[in-house]
Amino acid sequence: MSLEAIQFDRSHRDNISVRVLDQLLLPYTTKYVPIYTIDDGYTVINTMQVRGAPAIAIVGALAVLMEIQLLQNDGFAKTQTFYDFSSFDLIRSALSQRLDFLLSSRPTAVNLSNALCEIRALLAQSGDLAAFGNGVYDFVCRLIDEDLSNNVKMGDNGAAFLLDALQQEGFDKDFAVLTICNTGSLATSGYGTALGVVRSLWNDSLAKSQASGDGSVKKRKLNQGRAKMVRVYPLETRPYNQGARLTAYELVHDKIPATLIPDSSIAYRIATSPVPIKAAFVGADRIVRNGDTANKIGTYQLALVCKHFGIKFFVTAPKTTIDSKTETGAGIVVEERKPNEFKHVSGTLIDIQTGSPRVDDKGKPVSASVGVAPSEIDVWNPAFDITPHELIDGIVTEDGVFTKNVNGGFDLSNLFA
Ligand SMILES: CSC[C@H]1O[C@H](OP(=O)(O)O)[C@H](O)[C@@H]1O
């Protein structure tokens, strides 16, 4: 099992390498795909071999860095025709077109456009390719390192906020939380956003129960109350099943008690759960000025169900996911995926006798797709929906948890770059 979505070998500055975990083959196959060019970055992002707003931005920026490394290789320069090396101005113009292309890989998650904006500024101020390459290298290293440290801060912020709120309302028992899609290490540089909160809640729970754990988890009590998280309910997250394929995989890896549930069972699960469900933590692809949030399709109705049951609903995202240029959710472009990603279900062939993956003559699990709808039927397959800020109880960030003012509005101006 590997939770390392991105392998960036920076041990030799002049010979860096990048590989990404092909998440379409999880949970049964661990395969890394090399990234050499912006085309490679576009492909793995557009096909969702790598996905998750922060991870998309990191892989996009790394693809630019790898292309720059290639452009500085004379052998490549002689073979390609897109770039005109007669002046850096011409190279700069070609690179600008390549950044536009990369940005079109997935339009809704703002992290990629935020990262490419920074890279454009570096391109404008660089005098030559080497200087631009060094600027992008420093930017990408900072993006990766800050994302990881921010995720742990965010996880602790969200966990402590919930635990303190439960203590204040006099709740001191075991509880469960809900989450949707994948917002863990596979969507970021590590630890995760909403799933990072789950990891911090679990660390707190282990510390409070003095559980032995497996030694790999840093047990950290995050408040003095007795309430502790004992179970996670990840939603399968149709139609691409990031919850079933990826979040369940991460929770099994971390040995966090979890029960995978169908998207359609949220209300009935809350009504019948053996332990009270006290919160939902979801990620974000774009949070706009008023707090309206784009996230995986299904998030909006999860928020509605939480409102019905009086359960706290938190959006969890780093500042790199904030879009300070867009006023409300009405301004967000929602990506629609190909119909066959909905009409077909892809995965690994399972031997129904043994329940184990079918393998080929090389022992590799066999991938397959099955049809679950008539090919003639029209479908609507949005990758995201927009949760109105009115349904959001808090926005968890590395800078703390932001809640609404007495007028029911978020003031996120402190988070704007
Ligand atoms: C921290 S990941 C943010 C976000 O990205 C996921 O979408 P996708 O799997 O399509 O890239 C999902 O919306 C997560 O909440």
From TrEMBL:
What does the record give under GO molecular function?
A: S-methyl-5-thioribose-1-phosphate isomerase activity
Gene Ontology cellular component terms for the protein in this record: cytoplasm; nucleus
Q: Which reaction does it catalyse?
A: 5-(methylsulfanyl)-alpha-D-ribose 1-phosphate = 5-(methylsulfanyl)-D-ribulose 1-phosphate
Active site residues according to the UniProt entry: 285 (proton donor)
InterPro entries found in the cross-reference section = IF-2B-related, IF-M1Pi, IF_2B-like_C, Initiation_fac_2B_a/b/d, M1Pi_N, NagB/RpiA_transferase-like
Q: Which superkingdom?
A: Eukaryota
Marked site, Transition state stabilizer, at: 181
Coarse class of the primary localization is: cytoplasm
Note the Pfam families from the entry.
IF-2B
GO terms of biological process kind: L-methionine salvage from methylthioadenosine
The record's subcellular locations are: Cytoplasm; Nucleus
EC number from the UniProt entry: 5.3.1.23
Q: Which UniProt keywords apply?
A: Amino-acid biosynthesis, Cytoplasm, Isomerase, Methionine biosynthesis, Nucleus
Pathway per its UniProt entry is:
Amino-acid biosynthesis; L-methionine biosynthesis via salvage pathway; L-methionine from S-methyl-5-thio-alpha-D-ribose 1-phosphate: step 1/6
Q: Which NCBIfam families has this protein been placed in? A: eIF-2B_rel, salvage_mtnA
Give the function comment from the record. Answer: Catalyzes the interconversion of methylthioribose-1-phosphate (MTR-1-P) into methylthioribulose-1-phosphate (MTRu-1-P).
Give the UniProt family note: Belongs to the eIF-2B alpha/beta/delta subunits family. MtnA subfamily.
Its protein name is Methylthioribose-1-phosphate isomerase
Taxonomic source organism: Lachancea quebecensis
What gene is it encoded by?
A: MRI1
